[in-house]
Each structure stands twice: as C-alpha cells, then as structure tokens.
Amino acid sequence: MADSSRTIHVEMLTRVEGEGGLTLRIEGGRVTAAELNIFEPPRLFEALLRGRKLEEAPDITARICGICPVAYQMSAVHALEAALGITVSPEIRRLRRLLYCGEWIESHALHVYFLHAPDFFGCESGIELAQLMPAEIRRGLTLKKHGNELLTVLGGRAIHPINVAVGGFYRTPPREELQQLLPKLRWGLDAAIETARWVAAFNFPDVEHDYDYVALHHADEYALNEGRICSTSGLDIAAAEYEQHFAEQQVPHSTALHSVRIGSSRPYLVGPLARLALNRDQLRPAARQLADELLPAPPCRNPFRSIVARAIEIVQAYDEALEIVRDYTPPPTCRTEYAPRLGAGCAATEAPRGLLYHRYGIDESGLLTFAKIVPPTSQNQWQIEQDLLALAQQSPLSDDSQLAAQCERTVRNYDPCISCSTHFLRVKFDRR
Q1: Which of 16, 196, 210, 428 has the highest count of CB atoms within 10 angstroms of its CB?
Q2: Quick check: 427 pLDDT over 70?
Q3: Coil, helix or strand for 222?
Q4: In the chain, how long is the greatest CA-to-CA distance?
Q5: 270, 71 in Cβ contact below 8 A?
Q6: At 128, is the secondary structure helix, strand, or coil?
Q7: What is the DSSP annotation of 76-94?
Q8: Residue 210 burial class via C-beta count within 10 angstroms: exposed 0-12, middle 13-18, buried 19 and up
Q9: pLDDT band at 428 (very low <50, low <70, confident <90, very high)
Q10: H or E segment at 411?
C-alpha cells in the first residue's frame, strides 16, 4: 500500500523544449496539487530590448526560440508596424505567410515524429521509434527538412532567420529560387496527408476536458499572423484589447508567468486544437477534408489528439506554401520605407504552439522604450496543471513511477516551449 501522504517529483521532463519538472502532492490518499515546475532562469528579453533600435527587435526576439523564431519575429514586426503606421504590400504579406508555413512544417514535424509519437509506441525517444518504424521517421525528417529549407530561402538561414525586417524583408528571393522547391512541396503535401492518417490511427486515451479555446480568427483565411482574438466562450477582440482581457501572474513554483482571463476563474488553452475549434471553416480543402474525417464532431476536447490537429496543420501549411510558391512573382520593392516616430503598437500571431502577443513602445528617435511578450506556453501552463491534476486524481496511486510517466505523456500533448516562457523581468518568490 502506498503512503497516504507523499510527494512525487519528476526532476526533468523529457522530449520537451527546455528544462522543467513535475510535482504531485498527495495527502490522505488523494492528489491535492499538480505543478509544472519551470526552473529555467529568466532570460530577460524584454529588458534586453529596451533602448535598442527598433530594427533590432526581429533579430533579438528570434533568439527566444530555435524552433519557432519566425513567430517571435512576425509578432515583433507586426507590432512595430502598427506603432509606425506601416502597411506592407500584398506580395510581402504572402511571403510572410510562406515563411510562417515553413516554421509550422518544421516545428510540427519535429513534435509529431520525435517528441510525441514515441509515447504511443512505448518508446523512450525518436531514435528508439526509428528502429521500429524507419520509413515513418525518414518521412518525418524529410518534412522537417522542407520546413527548414523554406526558412533558409526566405529567412537567410534555418535557425534564427536574419532576413525579416520591419516593413518587409531585407531581400526577397528570385522566382527561380523558390520554384526549385515545388517538387519537394508537392511530395511533402502527399507525405503530410499520410502523416495525418498515420497519427489518427494511434490508440488514444479516452479523455476529454471542457476547454476554453483561444486563438486568432480571420474571416478569409486560416489565421497565422493576423486576425481577431476569439474564444469558444464568446470572446471576440482586436489584438490591441488583449491586455484588457488577459493578465499574467507569478506563481511560486515556476519561473514562467501564468496567464489568466481577467474576471474568469478558469484557465484557457491555445494551440492547434484551439485553432481547429475556431477556424475549421477556414482550412483549405485538403486539410478540411482530413479534419472532418479524422477529428469529427468539433470541437475536439481530447488533448492526446492534439497530435492529429498538428498533422492536419502540416497539410494546411504545405497546401498554402505550394500555392504561394507556384504563383510567386518578386515584389517591386522588398521593404516599405518609414520614419521613426513616438508611438506604441501590439500584435498577436499564431506560433506553432499557440497565440503569441507582443507590445512595444518607441521614442522619437526609433529606440524601444518598452517591450512585453506573452508566449503560448505561459498561457497554457495553468490549463496543463489542471489536466495533470485531473489525470492524477483519476489514476491509481499505488505506482509512483507509472503515475509520473502518465503525467509526462500528458505534458507532451501541449508541446510546451519552456525556454520561450521564461522571458519576464520580475521574479518574487514567497515560500512558506
């Protein structure tokens, strides 16, 4: 018989980006608390941005994450362009969506094949899974490579791109450079469809939660880097209203802030399940058909099926990338000219892991006076802990190692980017 009062620690989570752990507290034979312990040191990006030239923001924010740097760059440039009154050309807008498609492909492929899929086959790693399913893992590696190649062509390099600029790009590729990717994108679309069908056949736990999903929504397209912030509970606001409805708060066990809905006692969830719940009608035909076939009866509320949602978004990204590359003509100019001015601006985009919010202040000389960044993982952290608590309360408590392993699998549903979330300025610990 297990002790009625004890604490279970998972010192280090595996197959997630960054460093974090888990703590389960059991009192009187019942789990009373589940904590996602994020203990990476604060990285102080907002402080680092203050006093820098506004043009440096895209390159600095890209360093927040090596997996989803484009999301941070796009949020930064959109917020700064809002502050400066810049409207980019339709051609630049399409190229930015193409760059974002590349990031979604490489990030989702990494998570689906190497971080999440091993859980469904009892494997400790993607390397172990490759021994069981070499063809599938080769397919995943090729998908990720395609995403990286798109980032290289448009961003200058695959990791921490350097070609994104306020007002556009420093360089736009010639038509033939992009056209060379067409055969790979055509193969990738078919491979992405195979991926979605592969993961949809996994054996999923019978779990559902009543999530309040939050994501960008755009009336005319599947929202990537523009749209209104909406939720399944009825929220519908512009990005400029974000801080009137959402706030961050410190918790003692984490160096990442928890985001909450102001005036609500419930957590909320961002990410692919949220996007599909709110934007299924905006999917392109191939992805929409798969969503209707593989994730029926929307919205899907089983967190373990998030791997299916990510696979469907790979199809969406390949399909849109194919169209943009096929129809591409280099724009007449790669950047919109602007003059520095006193102002402030904010923006929200959809990182692979969910909604990402930025706000900046600029002085008359073009220096940054303020920066606020709210990453997806800090917004999901409270919901992750609630899901862990529900899982632990419904699981047998006789085997600590088995319970800890189940909790780790639950955390990986959300593909947390722990390093991204440890960005804030002030840390105050009150331990009693």
Answers
A1: 196
A2: no
A3: coil
A4: 73
A5: no
A6: helix
A7: HHHHHHHHHT----HHHHH
A8: exposed
A9: very low
A10: helix 400-412
Cα gap 281→376, rounded to integer Å: 23
- Separation of alpha carbons 356 and 224, rounded Å: 11
3 state SS of 165: strand
| Residue bearing tokens 């779990």 | 207
Mind giving me the DSSP string for 326-381? HT----S-SB------SEEEEEEEEETTEEEEEEEEE-TTSBEEEEEEE-HHHHHH
Q: Name the helix (H) or strand (E) containing 394.
A: helix 376-394
The mean pLDDT value for 41-55 works out to: 86
15 residue type, one letter? R
Using alpha carbons, list the distances in angstroms from residue 217 to 105, 220, 296, 355, 361: 20, 9, 20, 11, 26
Share of the chain above pLDDT 70, in %: 90
Both tokens of 80, joined, read 């700064």
Q: What is the dihedral sign for C-alpha 211, 212, 216, 222?
A: positive
Domains by residue range for the chain, with CATH: 45-421 (1.10.645.10)
Q: What is the mean pLDDT of the chain?
A: 88
pTM for the predicted model, two decimal places? 0.91
Structure tokens at 138: 């080769």
Q: Is 431 exposed, middle or buried (0-12, 13-18, 19+ CB in 10 A)?
A: exposed
Q: Are 167 and 338 in contact (CB under 8 A)?
A: yes
Report helix, strand or coil for 208. coil
Rounded Cα distance between 416 and 384, Å, is 9
